[in-house]
Amino acid sequence: MLRFIHTADVHLDAPLQTLSALYELRQDDFRRTMRTIRDLVLDRQADFWLIAGDLLEYHGGRRSTALFLRDLFASVAPVPVCIAPGNHDPWHPDSYYQTLEWPGNVFWFTPEWGAYEFPDKSCVVYGWGFPQPHVYESPLPAFPGRLHGYRHHLMVLHGSVVNGGADGHHPYAPVTLEELAAAGMDYIALGHIHKPAVFLHPISQTPFAAYPGSPEGLSAKEAGERFVILGELDGDGRLRLEHVPVQSRIISRREVDVAGAETTEQLVNVLERELADEGDGRLLYLTLTGERPAHFTPPVEVLEQRLSRFFYVQCTDRTWPDLDAEQLQAQSGVWGRWLSKLAEAEAEAEGADEWRRDVVRMARREALARIGGIMR
Ligand SMILES: [Mn+2]
After folding, report:
1. Pairing state between β 123-127 and 187-191
2. Neighbours of ion ligand 1 (CB under 5 A)
């Protein structure tokens, strides 16, 4: 039985827009997540820690963070840590990957295919690393093939799994499932795509490659639990994959209908009720919707302040005022003419596809919000 922990796309020291004042605290979260993964490597007695790229940002990555990684990796010795650099942390001569002295249990992959042999585990770990941020060709045609005399074969690779033939225009090492399958691996630890995905072998239709996703959310899009993959390979080459949540903080995206609220206190009451299931300390990306009284615009700064039990709140107001659109339309002013035009567009879109009807409806809602903002 061979066991491994697979992670990728941690993006330590990445610039995180909108978090300026909280940046250092959030970076501390990312390092805590790395420690959680390290604990998992030790607790589950993993044979390997596979890291498939975009670990420490080449641009902006700090020496202190590189030293943190060095100490962290030393703390799992003698467990091998196998790292394949990605497009955010390419194998540059002046990268910390090359300028620091790393513990003996850290194995780097470079732009020349590498194969590290672990005879006591009857395993070879193969890998390749980005030479620079943009790589338009698949690295797999240059893969020299499997070594003989070993039971298990693992690969670590950062790149984009593309459907069908690679078109040569994708800048991040495009690889096809067929190419990956042809390498004859028991498992391919992929990185690059931040959403978890497991790929089935085109012939056996069983899992043989995966993206674990980012273990800590980097943006509002990376909401909910975040994972690493715990893999187990038995003597017959059967693979079992388990997704283990490791995030330090959850990012939540919520839309709350605040229709009818016409004071800040009423708004806060609605939000406290609707968000009761959201744990303290989360990052909350909140959107307000619903028809509101024209006289009252939600004060987003105040709401952000009142929701201070969260680590970070970004509140976006998408409510619209309860203007009498028909009465405005009946008047000959510029607002009336604008709304009439949108009413015409809405009528025209009636027989069109749903996407077009949505666009027209959003345009009308936006127009009402703008008009309401001015007439307030
Ligand atoms: Mn990447």
Report:
1. unpaired
2. 54, 86-87, 192
Task: Report the predicted TM-score, pTM, of the whole model to 2 decimal places.
Answer: 0.89
Tokens of 355: 């996407």
Digit-coded pLDDT (tens) for 47-96: 999 999 999 999 999 999 999 999 999 999 999 999 999 999 999 999 99
Q: What secondary structure, in 3-state letters, does 21-49 show?
A: HHHHHHHHHHHHHHHHHHHHHHHCCCCEE
Distance 217 CA to ligand 1 centre (A): 14
Residue ranges making up the domain that contains 71: 2-245
Q: What pLDDT, on a 0 to 100 scale, did the predictor assign at position 358?
A: 85
Looking at residue 192, its amino acid is H
Mean pLDDT to the nearest integer, 151-172: 83
Q: What is the number of domains present in the chain?
A: 2
Instruction: Determine the Cα angle at 135 with ends 131 and 137, to 5°.
Output: 125
CATH of the domain at 161: 3.60.21.10
